[in-house]
Design goal:
The protein is of the alpha+beta class. The protein folds into two domains: 114 residues, no CATH class; 178 residues, Alpha-Beta Complex (Phosphoenolpyruvate Carboxykinase, domain 3), CATH 3.90.228. It is built from nine helices and 15 strands. It has a five-stranded antiparallel sheet with strand order 5-6-15-12-7. The protein has a four-stranded antiparallel sheet with strand order 9-10-14-13. A two-stranded antiparallel sheet has the order 1-2. The longest helix has 17 residues. It comes from Somion occarium. This is PARP catalytic domain-containing protein.
Length: 302
């Protein structure tokens, strides 16, 4: 039976060193500090050093790539290396990373690249305007728009890839809510001031403190423009969004050269019976905590 990297790291973390200074340094290279993830200190500074101490086990089977006689390695879906595994994804022989879909999954459902990106923070990816997801979002946006004017034309949609910590937090909240009340998942819309050219030339967030859109996306609703920690409104301090995108559009302001207005499409989990979370007659949705709401897409429209 092979020892997983996670188990090996956990085992290694039990060892202690004579001094506190040595405790903070990687147990393999001794040059960098140990990696800390959500308060847990691993014994190594990186996956590279972890594999030096705990080499990836080799299976007894042969690489599934045609013509290759090297043994398959655990973590490469029956192949000897990441290169052959990625080739198999391109050929449609195996399913790819759940996020990028171009590389082989090696860290759970994700490839190494996407796993690193997810640990670093949210990322944006532009959707294909001819794709099913794009058309579905546009259709729902138009259906939900109840404004006096016709719904605006959505030019671009940016998918928000959230860090695993945010996704886990949201899923844990949903599970907890589902054990105490009937769960209700809804799509809402949130808009704020956007002072950068988000999505025009690149898929990066700005660093301006007054850009409410980027602040919300980067923090997953834990921070708003100017570092404010919550919205304030009829139901108190929390997060406000809308079932009707026309109501959210009122709050969408732009002070840049961008030709677009920006709006965030969100997923919200609330109990089916109003409690601390509220859905009022004006289709305004209130949740008290960022655990109950996550940004899913950025809609750029005219």
């Amino acid at each position: 039976m092979y020892t997983s990297l996670k188990s090996a790291i956990h085992w290694g973390n039990q060892k202690t060193s004579p001094t506190a200074g040595q405790n903070d340094m990687c147990e393999v290279c001794g040059k960098k500090q140990k990696y800390v993830d959500n308060g847990f200190q691993h014994p190594y500074c990186s996956k590279t050093c972890a594999r030096v101490r705990n080499p990836q086990p080799i299976s007894t089977s042969q690489c599934a790539s045609r013509g290759c006689r090297l043994p398959a390695k655990v973590g490469y879906a029956g192949f000897c290396s990441e290169v052959h595994a990625n080739d198999a994804v391109r050929r449609g022989q195996i399913a790819g990373c759940a996020q990028c879909r171009t590389q082989a999954a090696s860290v759970g459902p994700l490839c190494t690249t996407c796993d690193k990106r997810n640990r670093a923070g949210p990322r944006l990816r532009e959707l294909d305007p001819n794709g099913v997801t794009f058309k579905s979002i546009v259709s729902q946006f138009g259906y939900e728009w109840k404004g006096s004017k016709r719904a605006p034309v959505i030019e671009k949609i940016l998918e928000v890839s959230l860090p695993s910590s945010v996704t886990s937090r949201f899923n844990a909240y949903r599970m907890k809510l589902d054990t105490t009340a009937y769960l209700r998942d809804i799509r809402t819309y949130h808009a704020a001031q956007c002072i950068c050219d988000l999505g025009v030339n690149n898929m990066t967030f700005c660093s301006w403190g007054s850009c409410g859109t980027c602040k919300v996306l980067k923090s997953a609703f834990r921070e708003f423009a100017f570092g404010v920690q919550c919205n304030t409104g009829r139901y108190g301090n929390g997060i406000y969004s809308y079932l009707d995108p026309a109501l959210a559009d009122i709050h969408a302001t732009s002070t840049t050269t961008s030709p677009y207005r920006a709006m965030i499409a969100c997923d919200v989990s609330i109990p089916s019976v109003n409690g601390p979370e509220q859905v009022d007659d004006g289709e305004r949705v209130f949740v008290a905590s960022a655990e109950a709401i996550v940004p899913r897409y950025v809609l750029l429209y005219k």
